[in-house]
Amino acid sequence: MEIYISIILASLLIIPFALKTFSPYVWMDIVYFGDLVRILVKFVARRRRRPLFFVLDRFLEQTEAHPDNTFIVFENESYTYACTDKRSNKIANALQSHAGYKGGDTVALFMGNEPTFLFTWLALAKLGSPVALLNHNIRTKSLLHCFNCCKAKVLIAAAELKEAVEDVLPSLIEQGVTVLLMSKNSDTPGIQSFSDEVEKASDDPIPRSFRSHITFKSPAVYIYTSGTTGLPKAAVVNQNRILTALAVLSSNGVVSSDVFYLNLPLYHTAGFVVGFIGTIETVTYISEFVKQQRHLLCTEVNVTSIIDLRKFLCCQGFARKLVAGSTIILKRKFSASQFWDDCRKHNVTVIQYIGEVMRYLCCAPKKDNDKDHKVRLAIGNGIRAEIWKEFLNRFGNIQIREFYASTEGNVGFLNYVGKIGAIGRVHFFHQKLFPYTLVKYDTERDEPVRDANGLCIESRKGEPGLLVSKITNLAPFSGYAQNEEQTERKRLHNVLKKGDLYFNTGDLMRIDKDNFIYFQDRVGDTFRWKGENVATTEVSDILTICDCLKEANVYGVQVPGHEGRIGMAAVTLKKEVQFDGRKIYNHVVSCLPSYARPRFIRMQSTVEVTGTFKQMKVKLVEMGFDPGRIQDPLYILDDNAKSYVPLTAQIYHAIISGSTKL
């Protein structure tokens, strides 16, 4: 018996060490699975509540439980939960009494990052109206296109966007659209002032009956794709999907004591769903206020930081105890020069990033106090491996939670391990809940490779493949508003068996031997030259390692008489650095195979990006490398000169005529 006991005890001691040696991530996998189960259980419990429970109801719960806690800090103003609730009530009451609006109408919100954006969305949620979140940077044709996608009956715009509204006003008037401007007066016929009506309106709560028609399948918001490949598409985000988004921050380790820095656009998924909706769930801190004094907190309190607000409240005798919670520090836009100063000023603990934001921070001038901050967690997607390393070395031990998701997609990954460069980890239980796979993709034909039976062929480990995710009740795809053609293009039929249906992410991925998954490229961004596939993101990463280059946007252009597309890069230079064709040539020759080397380089003052910092390629591809159409300096790789040399009209015509082969 003693022998058996000794064996058992020895096994118990050995197993953890063996697992750590041969399966180093198993404990993290178990914890992640536990988080998945916890989130799913909470989600199912909320789905079963009656009356139906939505994101708005979570906000109202938080308001009732913690009315005096700080919810939003914006510039020199601060708003509590109770104040936010009452502000949204005033907007809702003003709107529902307006002749141009009727309950349930879709409303388009045309506004930058400001508290009124959030107040207005909450107001419309209380009235049961879907909201189209318009990009405040778009104008004329794009603006009308986005507005028409959602068939909105009302447009609510910020005062500073009046001129943009006036540009499309004739079309809006023709459609019978009610146009409301968040100002106290308007001298433009067809545009009505709305702020004055809001100020006069009651702040009484909105009866639940106003939204009784809402179901989990009802649209909550329309969020537009970034438009990297043309006009934006309106992705339908329903109430069910937005309810699941409540867990996005808490599942990443954001707790009630965190201060969240939100500087990404609220019209986009990252800013609105992750930043705003996610924070509603995590704000659960405690405060004590003298009940009869609460109304004083519904006016703007001039503060310069969260700390100042707490001191103010304590000094005024309103609070005996105020414990920090997940407060939103809202910024109008991202600013690399103000980023860390803001974080220090407001004691920010959680930051958010997307696209090129982290690189912009790393490119900012170095300071002695770069590591002097309280940021412990960065959540986002799109950080490149070399920037990840540089960011940690420069700004300190910040946990980076890279994840993968899309506005309209039905699959996501989370890099809960912290593996540099990976977007997530392939997890058995995750794959059972949300079936997905990588399938071989033909970049030349721009479609998945199929076998003799017409089914897709799964990629092997280490090979790039198109990520597709099965469309199920648990992982639905709602499609795009008023665009069945684009919706159908995202549906992939007969993937692993006849009759199945998958969502086509349009993203090429790769899974390594340790089950980490890596983003390779967007379908359409990858091009084929000399019989080889070229991933634009990989080439961009290598180019920006060169001393003189700050940014690089790589794409493929067609050349008459040649199959496929040849590489071209639109680049910007670092400050006070001259273009060095020989140095760049030596760099690409030493780091890239011949087929992947950009044959043409286009110098730009700035690389054009979308509102969410994604590089735009469509116009660049259309213009090609014609010096007659392009005003920017152009260069061509010259192997004889061992340098990038100016692309003249003579060289261009020689290429087009076929006398010069590439």
UniProtKB/TrEMBL annotation:
Family of the protein in this entry: Belongs to the ATP-dependent AMP-binding enzyme family.
Protein name (record): long-chain-fatty-acid--CoA ligase
AMP-dependent synthetase/ligase domain span: 61-293, 322-424
A molecular function GO annotation: long-chain fatty acid-CoA ligase activity
Example of a GO cellular component annotation carried by this entry: plasma membrane
Catalyzed reactions: tetracosanoate + ATP + CoA = tetracosanoyl-CoA + AMP + diphosphate; a very long-chain fatty acid + ATP + CoA = a very long-chain fatty acyl-CoA + AMP + diphosphate
GO biological process, any: long-chain fatty acid import into cell
Annotated AMP-binding enzyme C-terminal domain residues: 542-614
EC primary class: ligase
E.C. number(s) listed in UniProt: 6.2.1.3
Keywords: Fatty acid metabolism, Ligase, Lipid metabolism, Lipid transport, Transport
A Pfam family matched in the record: AMP-binding_C
